[in-house]
C-alpha cells in the first residue's frame, strides 16, 4: 500500500532517517506495517510461525506515519508496506519476503552471527569488489575493503579501482583515441585540410594527461567508499582460519637478479643478461596464492590461480564468493564484474534471486579497427544449438567516411547468428568496424529484449551509418553468396 507524502524540511528528514536507522540496527526483525493491510498481516503470520519476535511499527497508528513512509522509501526505494528488515538487511515487501523464505535466504539472514566485526569483507578493490561492497553497504551491512597493489622494483603502483581503471579499460581507450586522432589527421588531407607543418606526437604529454585522469578516478572511488561508510584499508588480506582475515604489510626490499636468455624472432641473435625486472606481456595471473585460501579449503586452479565458482559466484567454501577476473571460465570484463558484484550483494543481503547473465554480455576490442560482439561466437553457437538449427547472416561493408579517404572498401564486417526454431532470435552479434563498441552496446539491449531477425528487418536504419547494415542483412553463409559490399 502506497501513500502521498508530505514535505519535510531537510533537518527533519535527516533526524527521522537517523531514528529509523537506529530502529533497524537495534532489532533483529523490523516490520514497517499498516494495521489494516492484508499483506502486512501475512508477513506477521510468517514470522510468528517461525517463532521469531518482531519489532512492528504500524504507520497508520503513529502521528508521523506518512513522513516515516516517505523517508523509508528513500532508504529502500520501496514506496509500499510492509517493508521488512532482518538483521539490518532490507528483505523487501510481502512477495519478496515469502520468496526469500522459500529459497532459504530468509532463514540464512535470521541465523547470521552478530559477533563478526563485518558482514562482508572484500579482498581486492577492483570493479567487482567495489561494486559488491557499495551495494552491500547500501543494504545496511558492515563492509570492509582490503586492497594493496604490490609495487614494482621501480616503485610503480596504482590506486583503488583495479586493473580496469589503472592499467586496463580506461588508459587503453584513451590511448586508442590518441591513435584514432592520428589516423584522422591522415584522412583529413583527403577532405581538404592542409597542414602547414608536420604534426608530431608527444608521448609524455599524452601519458601525463591519462595518468591525471586515472588519479582522479582513484580518488573518486575512495570518496564513494567514505560516503557509504565502507571501511577501506590499503593493506593485504589473508585468511588465517574460517571467518577470520589478517590484515600484513608486505615486506619491503629489492628483488634478486634474474638471468635471461632470449632468442630474437627476426633472426638467430641470442640475448643474455642479468636483470632485476623481467616483463612478460603475456597476460595476468590471479593474485590468489598468498591470501590463505588453502587454509580454509577454497579450491583454486593451480595453473592460473583462478577460483572455480557455481552459478551464484560461490566457491568450494560456502561463505567465500568470487567475482571479476579471478573467476575461472568467465570473461575478464569490468562491466561483468560490476554486475556480478552488485547482484551478489543483493542476493546475500537483499533477498534478491537474480543471477549474472554471462552469455549476453557485450564487449569490444579497441584495436585500430574495433571489434564488438554480444552473445555466442559462431563456433560456440554450433556446439550449443547444432549447425542445422542456425542461420548466419553476414556482409562486408564500406563506411562512408572511408570512401573519400580511399581506405579499403571491404574490411568491415557484420554478422548475426539466429536460432531457427526460436523465431530466428538473435543469439550472436558481431561487428568489425569504426565505433563498434557504441554499436554493440545498443544491440546488446535489444538482444536482452529478445531481438529477432524480423525485428531487425522491420527497423528503419539511420542513413548513412555503419549500424544501418544490420537492418539490411540478406546474405546467409549457407547460401554461399558473395558477401562483399556493393553500392552506398
Automatic annotation (TrEMBL):
Signal peptide from the UniProt entry: none
Classification via InterPro entries: FAD/NAD-bd_sf, FAD/NAD-binding_dom, FAD/NAD-linked_Rdtase_dimer_sf, Glutaredoxin, Glutaredoxin_euk/vir, GSHR/TRXR-like, Pyr_nucl-diS_OxRdtase_dimer, Pyr_OxRdtase_I_AS
One BP annotation, GO: cellular response to oxidative stress
GO MF terms, alphabetically ordered: flavin adenine dinucleotide binding; glutathione-disulfide reductase (NADPH) activity; thioredoxin-disulfide reductase (NADPH) activity
Matches recorded under Pfam families: Glutaredoxin, Pyr_redox_2, Pyr_redox_dim
Catalytically driven reaction(s): [thioredoxin]-dithiol + NADP(+) = [thioredoxin]-disulfide + NADPH + H(+)
Subunit structure: Homodimer.
Protein name: Thioredoxin reductase 3
Species of origin: Monodon monoceros (Narwhal)
Native organism taxonomy: Eukaryota, Metazoa, Chordata, Craniata, Vertebrata
Amino acid at each position: 500500500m502506497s501513500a502521498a507524502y508530505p514535505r519535510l524540511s531537510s533537518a527533519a528528514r535527516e533526524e527521522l532517517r537517523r531514528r529509523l536507522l537506529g530502529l533497524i540496527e537495534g532489532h533483529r526483525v523490523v516490520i514497517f506495517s499498516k494495521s489494516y493491510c492484508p499483506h502486512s498481516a501475512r508477513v506477521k503470520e510468517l514470522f510468528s510461525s517461525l517463532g521469531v519476535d518482531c519489532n512492528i511499527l504500524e504507520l497508520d497508528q503513529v502521528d508521523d506515519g506518512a513522513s516515516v513512509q516517505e523517508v523509508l522509501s528513500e532508504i529502500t526505494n520501496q514506496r509500499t508496506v510492509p517493508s521488512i528488515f532482518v538483521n539490518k538487511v532490507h528483505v523487501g515487501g510481502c512477495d519478496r519476503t515469502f520468496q526469500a523464505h522459500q529459497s532459504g535466504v530468509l532463514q540464512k539472514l535470521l541465523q547470521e552471527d552478530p559477533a563478526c566485526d563485518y558482514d562482508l569483507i572484500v579482498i581486492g578493490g577492483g570493479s567487482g569488489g567495489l561494486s559488491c561492497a557499495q551495494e552491500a553497504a547500501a543494504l545496511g551491512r558492515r563492509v570492509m575493503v582490503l586492497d594493496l597493489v604490490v609495487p614494482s622494483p621501480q616503485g610503480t603502483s596504482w590506486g583503488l579501482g583495479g586493473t580496469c581503471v589503472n592499467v586496463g579499460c580506461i588508459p587503453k581507450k584513451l590511448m586508442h583515441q590518441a591513435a584514432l586522432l592520428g589516423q584522422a589527421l591522415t584522412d583529413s588531407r583527403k577532405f581538404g585540410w592542409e597542414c602547414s607543418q608536420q604534426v608530431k606526437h608527444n608521448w609524455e604529454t599524452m601519458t601525463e594527461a591519462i595518468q591525471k585522469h586515472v588519479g582522479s578516478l582513484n580518488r573518486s572511488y575512495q570518496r564513494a567508499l567514505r560516503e557509504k561508510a565502507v571501511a577501506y584499508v590499503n593493506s593485504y588480506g589473508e585468511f588465517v582460519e574460517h571467518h577470520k582475515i589478517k590484515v600484513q604489510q608486505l615486506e619491503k626490499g629489492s628483488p634478486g637478479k634474474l638471468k635471461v636468455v632470449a632468442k630474437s624472432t627476426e633472426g638467430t641473435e641470442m640475448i643474455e643478461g642479468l636483470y632485476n625486472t623481467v616483463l612478460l606481456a603475456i597476460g595476468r595471473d590471479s593474485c590468489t596464492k598468498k591470501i590463505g585460501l588453502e587454509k580454509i579449503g577454497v579450491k583454486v586452479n593451480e595453473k592460473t590461480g583462478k577460483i572455480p565458482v557455481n552459478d551464484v559466484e560461490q566457491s568450494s567454501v560456502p561463505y567465500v564468493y568470487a567475482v571479476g577476473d579471478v573467476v575461472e571460465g568467465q570473461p575478464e570484463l569490468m562491466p561483468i564484474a560490476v554486475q556480478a558484484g552488485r547482484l551478489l550483494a543483493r542476493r546475500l543481503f537483499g533477498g534478491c534471486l537474480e543471477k549474472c547473465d554471462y552469455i549476453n554480455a557485450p564487449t569490444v576490442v579497441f584495436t585500430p579497427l574495433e571489434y564488438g560482439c554480444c552473445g555466442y561466437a559462431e563456433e560456440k553457437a554450433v556446439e550449443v544449438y547444432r549447425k542445422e538449427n542456425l542461420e548466419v547472416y553476414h556482409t562486408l561493408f564500406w563506411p562512408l567516411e572511408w570512401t573519400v579517404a580511399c581506405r579499403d572498401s571491404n574490411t568491415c564486417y557484420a554478422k548475426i547468428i539466429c536460432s531457427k526454431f526460436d523465431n530466428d532470435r538473435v543469439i550472436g552479434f558481431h561487428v568489425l568496424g569504426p565505433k563498434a563498441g557504441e554499436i554493440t552496446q545498443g544491440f546488446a539491449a535489444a538482444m536482452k529484449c529478445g531481438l529477432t531477425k524480423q525485428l531487425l528487418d522491420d527497423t528503419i536504419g539511420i542513413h548513412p551509418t555503419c549500424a544501418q547494415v544490420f537492418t539490411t542483412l540478406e546474405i546467409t553463409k549457407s547460401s554461399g553468396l558473395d558477401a562483399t559490399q556493393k553500392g552506398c
